[in-house]
Amino acid sequence: MSSRSRRQVIKTALGAGLSRLLLPFVQQIQRQAAADTPQIPQRFLFVVKCSGLTPAELVPLEQLPSRVQPAAEAGWPEELRASDNLLDFSLAEQTLPPSLEPLAPFRNYLTVLQGLSGKMCRGGHSAWYGALGCYHTGNEGNPGRAATATVDGMLANMLPAIFPHVGLTLGGKVLSGVKDSVVYPGISALATDRPLPYQASPQMAYKNLFGVAATGQAAQAEQQLKSMLLDYMVHDIKRLQNRIAGADHEKLDHYLEAFESLRMRRRRLQGLEAQIRQHAPVVRDKFTSQVETDRIEAHFDIAAATLISGLSQVVTLRADTLDVTYHGLGIGKHVHGLGHAEAVPGMTATEARNRIRRFQVEQIARVAAKLQAVPEGNGTMLDNTLIVYLSDSAEKHHGSCLEWPFVLLGGLGERFRPQVGGRYLQYPGYGKEGHRTIANFYLTLLQAVGQVQEQFGRLDLNLDPAWQRGPLAELLT
């Protein structure tokens, strides 16, 4: 169908009174039909690992002699050498390290970002909200309070969707194991003292996000019952409002607003039912499996389907916790032990950590393949989606936050585009002229979607404030 024909169909649909239910979907189709790239939805997938993202394992093989040095302690991963100057070169003629090999088919979308610091955060097992919010909070076992919104929370506020933010995880706090409930891991916040929830069960996440697309008599009956209950609750609250006054009436207003919001969300979901059913992941055994690798794969499937179906523009997936043991990868030691260089049969702790990291990158590659298969505007959904892979404990287990690496995959339309062949970007080391922080990177993401501001989170008082303001100009087009 031509763009003109598609626009005419959309116009007819809007005139037929379908706009309220189908507005998010219709707007997306309008943008695609017009190939209006700047207005195509921008999306983010944050993949957060624990126990550090080893910088040396992200360096191209040809650069190892000059960029990597031995570890300070035996059995620990090698370390990245701090640079005196900005390093910015193409990955086109470089050999990707084993950790990043699964991303080779998407090399043109790949940026390895190194040299940023995050000393405004706490180090140790986790920086908690600080990793995405740039401030000091919590202790080894407790996230503390969310001082401000984290970057994924801010982006969720800026990129409205049926579900503003979707959080997926294996467990709760950093030292906890696999859960089967809604948890608050303490890494994402919508605003001050408003932590964002995460779904630890792939099965429940599927039901909450894609339940409207469920088939079978039992599933359909459950969906119909939920709609009826919401209708009755709204009706009863309105009737009760007519009988009371004063503070109780005001309280009921808030109840009514909450239930009206739930009812409207359900109606919007029903309006998008065909779209959701088309892109919902196929439920297999891994959605109910107790094997951690199965559950992680299921969460990545849910993340991809959530973005493709338009249910949310911002997903944060916490890939593991310190108490997770990767039996599915043949590793019989939990992540915490591996972080302390405890070996496992048949491999060193470093080799086990590398195997885990590669598995997570393989999942990112699966999501990228699904996004690249969906046409959008003049390209694909991968052109308008940025996957951000990072750790909540910076560069290592018990991170110092002097170096906080990121792996970026995808783009944000014309606003953010890596070099052809991929890009390696390393900023000068901590305290050196030209050094930048993770706050500068988050300011870059915000500016790419239209939010221009000079500071994000709190400043590192040991650095020149000017270095910590504004985006990373090298990443913006």
Q: Would you mind describing this structure in some detail?
A:
β8 and β9 (194-195) form a beta hairpin. The chain has 13 helices and 16 strands. It has 2 domains: 1-34; 41-207 and 282-475, Alkaline Phosphatase, subunit A (3-Layer(aba) Sandwich). By secondary structure, the chain is α/β, with parallel strands linked by helices. The strands form 5 sheets. The chain has an 8-stranded mixed beta sheet with strand order 4-16-5-15-14-1-11-6, sandwiched between helices. A two-stranded antiparallel sheet has the order 2-3. α1 (3-15) packs antiparallel against α2 (19-34) and α2 crosses α8 (246-271).
Summarize the structure in short.
With 477 residues, the protein is an alpha/beta fold. Helix content is 36%, strand content 12%.
